[in-house]
Amino acid sequence: MQRRAVTTALAASALLLAAGCSSGGGDTPGGGSASSSSTAPGPSGSRETAEHTPPATGSVRVVRTVAANLKTPWGLAPLSGGGLLLADRDDGTITRIDDRTGKKTLLGSVPGVSAAGEGGLLGIALSPGHASDHLVYAYLTTDSDNRIVRMLYDTKKPSGEQLGAPDTVFKGIPKGTIHNGGRIAFGPDGMLYAGTGESGNRGLSQDRDSLGGKILRMTPEGEPAPGNPFGDSVVYSYGHRNVQGLAWDDKQRLFASEFGQDTWDELNAIKPGDDYGWPIAEGKSTDPRFHGPIAQWRTDEASPSGIAYAEGSIWMAGLRGERLWRIPLKGTQSSAPPQAFLKGTYGRLRTVVPAGGNKLWLTTSNTDGRGDPSGTDDRILEVEVS
Question: Which of 243, 305, 321, 361 is the most buried (most CB within 10 A)?
């Protein structure tokens, strides 16, 4: 694995910028359906105190279409002052979306993106100190690997020129036509987490020296985070096939969604150092070596990408399944069968992020080469959940 810290020039630019800057669609209720689920023990350090259990059934209402006519949207990052940053997988661009009007402002292109198959410009995340350092992180596929970079976002520059030169934070993640992972997120601990895929090479998932088929945890500078389970390594958990969803609940416990192959997709509660079984196990297993999923789905019902936590539940976007799943939680277990909404209404669903309170931002993914786009695809939806 390879990593490097931020350049002095980038850091100096961030300080200068911080000194100069202050910081229609219709309603569509969904129907519900259940799927099989399994339970697993929770992460170490979980507080075993009494917790609120959400109702067994919930609801979803699409409030409005925030933006339409988007091309291959993938990563989505809400700005604290309003607005959304959106990554275009194939064009390698980042665009700001006004969440009130839908107006699009191009920040710029990310150099080095090599889009092919499932690779390209994937997840994006804002620095925990974004209000002062104005840094945007991105996970991208290059000609040689998958890597994480960060760039200065300068709102004072003209449209199309607002992204600074990318600084590589972490590189060497295996790439492939398939299974590139790609979700990145900063956790409650301020560390950067990344979900990776095994790039079609199954053996990488069980190899703790490989970065493929893992959840990685690192400092914002790309160094192994303090407290990681395998010493001087960014590997946080392993035995994954293709992780594209990361979210924390209100007790700071990490959950991840994972693509299965032919049988079971998974939602997992992540415990540092644990083995999640791939390719030896797919879905629930009786093998005590493996940490089993808290819920599982047939691949035609899910093929999950992004997840978010709201109203006591994990909300999981399904690509092939073309639906939004609700998984109510009690601790690190599912407290009731998962419930499906928006089945087939908007096609493939890629990314879901909290929008504050009981609302979510939800993106479609019908222009990714595997969907059937409508005249206004792709879209960002504002969704109210309970």
Answer: 243
Structural element, H or E, at residue 185: strand 184-186
For residues 75 and 138, the answer to whether their CB atoms sit within 8 Å is yes
Given a contact cutoff of 8 angstroms between Cβ atoms, the answer to whether 245 and 297 are in contact is no
pLDDT tens digits for range 204-249: 999 999 999 999 999 999 999 999 999 999 999 999 999 999 999 9
Contact call for residues 139 and 194 (beta carbons, < 8 A)? yes
pLDDT digits (tens, 9 = 90+) for 90-141: 999 999 999 999 999 999 999 999 999 999 999 999 999 999 999 999 999 9
DSSP string, 192-261: EEEE-B-TT-GGGTT-TTS-TT-EEEE-TTSSBPTT-TTSS--EEEB--SBEEEEEE-TT--EEEEE--S
Query: CATH: 3.20.20.70, 3.20.20.300, 2.120.10.30, 1.10.287.110. Which one for 2-23+25-385?
Result: 2.120.10.30
Distances (CA, A) of 159 to 46, 104, 121, 152, 154: 45, 10, 19, 14, 10
